[in-house]
Amino acid sequence: MSATAVTTELSLRGEVIGPDDADYDEARKIWNGSVDKRPALIARCRGVADVLAALDYARDNDLLIAVRGGGHSIPGHSTCDGGIVIDLSQMKGIRVDPSARTVRAEAGVTWGEFDRETHAFGLATTGGQITTTGIAGLTLGGGVGWLMRKHGLTCDNLLSVDVVTPDGRYVTASENENPELFWGLRGGGGNFGIATSFEYRVHPLEQVLAGPLVHRLERAGEGLRFLRDFLDSAPDELTTFAVFATCPPHEPFPAHLHGQPVFLIVPCWSGPQDEGERLLRPLREFGPPEADLVGPLPYPIFQSMLDGTAPWGLRHYGKSDFLGELDDEAIDVLVDRAAGLPGPLSQVLIAQLGGAVARVSPDATAFGNRGAGFFYHSIVLWTDPEEDADQIAWARSLWQGMRPHSAGVYVNFLAEDEGRLDEVYGTRTFERLTALKEEFDPTNALRLNHNIAPGRS
Description:
- This protein is α+β, with helices and mostly antiparallel strands.
- 28% of the residues lie in helices and 23% in strands.
- The protein starts with a helix and ends in a 17-residue tail after the last helix.
């Protein structure tokens, strides 16, 4: 199919890019450099009318459909071979209503762009840990982030979603309109339609008390046990990650640890600063750390702090699970396996859940496993395709060691189509989702996702 033919047949306000176009190779790239797909065309939509036209074209030509927001899908669901990519990345509208404390944002917005607009009004909501991540995929899968214990998951702050259904209808889903669809969109991913815009609840927040506490790797076991006990009575305003990583080779990290494996404790306090200074004192004195980089930061600055750990275009793989608790045996496995990170950009993250995440009823949204106490996520990043097997094997080995401690898995952290949706949702929720899929997408047109097949009654 030539680019000229595509342009003639599919007319959009945005661009239509085909294999003959000069910018095709750049346009087809996504964040995970391991994924190298060649779609028949890329429809860069500028609005809902473009989405409707692209969907009609795909249906009329029986094309496989991939939907792209931020392009951060770990398994590469945001692109395809031989089909159409309905690319929403140019849909960047954001409108903040500071009096109502709500935001309406289109599906191409990234978390960095979202935070910039809300921060101008001293407002924020739970977003991801990497600001180049798109709001759409993260929200539809649930949305863990630094504010989750205080304000819930991203999807818990969702008020409504505008959706183009696979049969070409444009609908709004909220508690009052299409409530069952709204339930499914909060955790069920992109299975039921193409979400074009989101309305969120936002909360007063200008700065956080946050940053890494840097420890030598040999303190990791003791550090994780101390952290677990410290967090047992932590208030909701505190969300904390522990990280096995390679120390960045630059200031403000201590020079004697540059390039060395380290253990980090990264608190984020979103309450009053004087209270945070008092509450975090035991955590900051533990060890003591090789470096204490905790301080008051504007929330968007802290949100972007980890961006350099996940640059665009590297090869990526990861494995993850929720943990019911962080017991001594699980800590021993994490310390043993994470001591051998396979590369300087690879990491293992451990984060506390609970708080507002756990207080939402399990039936209120499609997001599962709200009762988990923690999650861990091993992330391997590398550049050489010759290393693929070894890098992936390392992540799988850690995961196998942690399997006895699993309490389910977060759908946005699935690196492949692993047949684990029962662990994501549980039986009751999954049955409800299959019925919803049958109602809104009975032909499974939107199947490039962690797919929920239509239920046949």
